[in-house]
Design goal:
Structural class: alpha+beta
Organism: Agrococcus baldri
Number of strands: 6
Keywords: Oxidoreductase
Family: Belongs to the nitroreductase family.
Number of domains: 1
Protein name: Nitroreductase
Largest sheet: 4 strands, antiparallel
Distance between the termini: 30 Å
Bound molecules: flavin mononucleotide
Shape: globular
Helix content: 25-40%
CATH class: Alpha Beta
InterPro entries: Nitroreductase, Nitroreductase-like
Radius of gyration: 18 Å
CATH architecture: 3-Layer(aba) Sandwich
Amino acid sequence: MRPQAAVHDGAMTKPAPDLLDTLRSLRQSRRFLPTPIAHEDLEQLLEVARWTGSAKNTQPWHLIVVTEPEANTALAGYGDFTDFLAGVAASIVVAVEGEGRSVAFDDGRLQERVMLAAAARGIGSGTAWFSSGTARRKVRDLLGFPSHMEPWSAIGLGHTDTSQAQASPQLSGRKAVEEIVSWGRYGVVSPSGE
Ligand SMILES: Cc1cc2nc3c(=O)[nH]c(=O)nc-3n(C[C@H](O)[C@H](O)[C@H](O)COP(=O)(O)O)c2cc1C
């Protein structure tokens, strides 16, 4: 019988029945408890990050782990929607070398993989983007990234404060599957061709 979901573990694959639920339900956290994140957990996330795939295996990234609250508060002030970084237990700021679709794709793969790894450790996470050149220059100055590395984003981490809303409703829903998927040809909404 074929497994419904599987994790690749070296040469082994084994069923992971909870994985689909985790993948489907993972949401961005933006409000956190003051509880720190264990160093061992951060190391696990970084190890997962390290194994992220990238175009031609270029691994075009450098990650800075920021645990000082003052530094995270400063980062919170740099972007347009990065304010929640002021309340994280830690952030991982990701800078990439080069530009274009391939590098952006690799950056996104790493971010999402770290967020999933955080969920596997019971840690909430949210991505934040330093979308302007001015914001990225401030991040570079604060953390000392070299000039050839662009710090586009940060992953905020912490134990989610479940007593608070994590996002506004308009940022939280999803389109219906029929709106985003076709079968065989654009606009065909079911596998039977109807
Ligand atoms: C490229 C990109 C940039 C993002 N930047 C921010 C950001 O700066 N601040 C933020 O709060 N969320 C940011 N997000 C997260 C999205 O807002 C979030 O994934 C979306 O609203 C879904 O939220 P949910 O997981 O709560 O449903 C970003 C996501 C992407 C893909």
